[in-house]
Fold:
Amino acid sequence: MKAIALNATLKTSDGDPSSTEKMLELLLSELEKEGVDGEIVRLADLNIKPGVKSDEGEDDDWPEVRSRVLAADILVLGTPVWLGQPSSVAKRALERMNAFLSEKDDGGRMVSYNRVAAVAVVGNEDGAHHISAELYQALNDVGFTLAPNAVCYWVGEAMGGTDFKELDKTPDPVSSAATMLARNTVHLARLLKANVYPPVS
Amino acid sequence: MKAIALNATLKTSDGDPSSTEKMLELLLSELEKEGVDGEIVRLADLNIKPGVKSDEGEDDDWPEVRSRVLAADILVLGTPVWLGQPSSVAKRALERMNAFLSEKDDGGRMVSYNRVAAVAVVGNEDGAHHISAELYQALNDVGFTLAPNAVCYWVGEAMGGTDFKELDKTPDPVSSAATMLARNTVHLARLLKANVYPPVS
Amino acid sequence: MKAIALNATLKTSDGDPSSTEKMLELLLSELEKEGVDGEIVRLADLNIKPGVKSDEGEDDDWPEVRSRVLAADILVLGTPVWLGQPSSVAKRALERMNAFLSEKDDGGRMVSYNRVAAVAVVGNEDGAHHISAELYQALNDVGFTLAPNAVCYWVGEAMGGTDFKELDKTPDPVSSAATMLARNTVHLARLLKANVYPPVS
Amino acid sequence: MKAIALNATLKTSDGDPSSTEKMLELLLSELEKEGVDGEIVRLADLNIKPGVKSDEGEDDDWPEVRSRVLAADILVLGTPVWLGQPSSVAKRALERMNAFLSEKDDGGRMVSYNRVAAVAVVGNEDGAHHISAELYQALNDVGFTLAPNAVCYWVGEAMGGTDFKELDKTPDPVSSAATMLARNTVHLARLLKANVYPPVS
Structure:
């Protein structure tokens, strides 16, 4: 089983450390315990062009990311919170997956079917539930399945300023959520790998 | 296999016909083709008391509804659109399911686990995607699994006034969405019935 | 100048103390410093019937609340967070204000025009931004004006369990937000009282 | 009085016509009737770098856009609908305005205060209310004031495929909404220009 985690931080890899990266590393380590190989793709390092097609032409890095998404059994979309909402980088990736709506396999199913998605959200304060709602809906619209408790998140107290990456220790509820997310998601991905959704017609 | 559909219209059964009811009947007929027995519960006919416990005391009709939800393999939550948002009746049902967060089985899993949820949305105009987002998130938080394309919806043109119940014919995209929702949801519910999520510890 | 605060907690007045009430009291004390008389209405104590008309018949307590809303210059809608979303009681009040869409004054403006709205949100953890988004949109749709920073909120750390009412001291950022909300809202309400929106035609 | 409209379509000016542009032109023509000079900025033509500062360094086109936003009395943010949500380009602009949270004038107010914002949304089908909710909240968080009915939108029937730019005639409800938005917004912008919010002190 393979997982791909998209890190939708606004920061490139050569900048400050990313709290979202830290959360995704936690999730990948839990997925690894379930026998899943994972990798993280930092979207801000790439040129993901605006648009809703799978290939937006010259210098577009999305086709390569798209191939890796479709080669994986599990997609984790990780985003920071800005203004209580998902990042523009996360939205850009979802817009590009909008193309799946018209890309079908032989059975008339979207090419993304039979994959399980999960969500990671990190911010100073507030916003995780709404972000999981928006990401669940967009990911479900473009063909992904969602296991229960498909989000792992951390945010601080209202109007606080501490970052997840600054915490000395991962809070227990976050660790538990990561474990549960990994187990549920892998269980469901295994079932769907062995038993694909019925063809549309 | 059994399905329960909760109709969260603001109207009681003795009032005007409900467009949400018509949509839920369409979904139940599609589920029936997949071998699933279904029933519709009109929440506005009942006294679903405010609160976040499974039993809010005297005259509370939720405990009876809750039993039927847990006796089913599939939950369909149907809501009308008001101000682009889910109805207060839908929200009330979700608040009562908040109790699942602390109701666990022997394996430490919420009692709602291993059930698949789907969503139906009907309005004059606009609001379906947001409503599916909010309902997906709340249902996922309280333990339900979501198959791809887990919503069937109809809304008219911006600022329009036609109701779904007034349409002479169900639009083709709605029929197709209903069929796909039923097939995906039943496929997933069968898999989970035979292969429950792993215990938490 | 008059303000009315609607408390959309799920609890009646004879139950446990309400964190939302504590937040609304803070806001009313700040509004009072600006010369505004305020009152709090606990919606869960009343029979606000489901529907989208201003009067839903026998035993409906909304007509009385509606009169007080329209007699005020400022409306504060206060809600607890459940599942990251506004309460069913808050939604119920908004559905009833949906009737303003077709209730016009001599100038063709909704009867709610020239009033300023603000929002209060309280929860254990996470959800305030989304709730302010939903409430802003619904309140704006039904005719209210919004001053900048129109929300005062408190939520704790992710997956935490402390209630606002349990805090020994109101956190400084909350106090500052309350002051700013009061000043901005009153400033705008005064301007609109003296200079109403132009008639529609 | 001056207005700036940000067009957050995913398309550059040398591509297909933009439905969002058509909607913004309608709004600017209504604003012009109220004596307001307006201009449209196509964000996709520019290099708006990811980040939450007002200047993200070399080749960043945001500082120039930011100056024009602050030179205007009215900001209109126009976005297409993708997956029922605002575009990544709209989100990018909001993230850059996040910097206003720490940019204060002599009175301790955000530099964006005393400006009125409005929203334009265009899509094939569904999504306008949610988008206005998210944009209202983000714009309000970063200091803008909102007049009643601050959105003008068009979307078609559920799962439809017609674009706003393909309509032979602007539907009457859209024309009326545009007129009302312009009148309310200009009325409020005039009041705030003459009567700024009180200093924070």
About this structure: The interface with chain D takes residues 110, 112-113, 129-130, 132-134, 136-137, 140-141, 143-151, 180, 183-184, 187-188, 191-192, 195, 197-198, 200 of chain C (CB under 8 Å). Residues 2-194 of chain C form a domain with the Rossmann fold fold (CATH 3.40.50.360). Helices of chain C lie at 19-33, 62-71, 88-97, 128-141, 172-194.
